[in-house]
């Protein structure tokens, strides 16, 4: 299993999560962790780190121990999120080389609310 490092993003999005070893397509990368809350509670919270598990539950991944919170939005992602048994796991969509920043598509709702008003800064759009 590879090692991950949080450091300044190269594309102007604050911090990012980078790999320090190679990953192969399909490899497990990291789990998104945090407080599991009801979707009703998620609607009340003001947080950019809410990740919906299903229609009933959401993970609030704002805690700093959740290194997956540093994964930025990429319009052309190199990883994907998969919900498995109530967990959100990230897997490589393609081979990822040592030193690459990780990114996944945050989805239309998040993009409309938090990205589009300021312009996308992902590597594909920058």
List the keywords:
single chain, 126 residues, 10 strands, mainly beta, 3-stranded antiparallel sheet, Beta-clip-like
- Mean pLDDT figure: 92
Query: Helicity range of the residues?
Result: 10-25%
Number of strands: 10
Structural class: mainly beta
Question: H/E order of the elements?
Answer: EEEEHEEEEEEH
Shape: globular
Q: Roughly how many Å is the radius of gyration?
A: 14 Å
Report the CATH topology name of the domain at 4-30 and 66-115.
Answer: Beta-clip-like
Bin the strand percentage.
Answer: 25-35%
Q: How would you write the strand order of the largest sheet?
A: 3-9-8
pLDDT < 50 stretches: none
- The CATH level-2 architecture of the domain at 4-30 and 66-115 is identified as Beta Complex
Largest sheet: 3 strands, antiparallel
Straight-line distance between termini: 31 Å
Number of helices: 2
CATH C-level name of the domain at 4-30 and 66-115: Mainly Beta
* CATH homologous superfamily annotation of the domain at 4-30 and 66-115: SET domain
């Amino acid at each position: 299993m590879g090692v991950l490092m949080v450091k300044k993003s190269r594309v102007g999005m604050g911090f990012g999560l980078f790999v320090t070893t190679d990953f192969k397509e399909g490899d497990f990368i990291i789990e998104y962790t945090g407080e599991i809350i009801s979707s009703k509670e998620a609607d009340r919270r003001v947080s950019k780190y809410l990740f919906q598990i299903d229609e009933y539950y959401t993970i609030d991944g704002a805690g700093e121990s959740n290194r997956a919170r540093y994964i930025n939005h990429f319009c052309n992602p190199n990883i994907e999120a998969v919900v498995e048994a109530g967990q959100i796991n990230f897997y490589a969509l393609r081979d990822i080389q040592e030193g690459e920043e990780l990114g996944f598509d945050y989805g239309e709702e998040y993009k409309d609310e938090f990205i589009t008003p300021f312009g996308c800064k992902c590597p594909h759009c920058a």
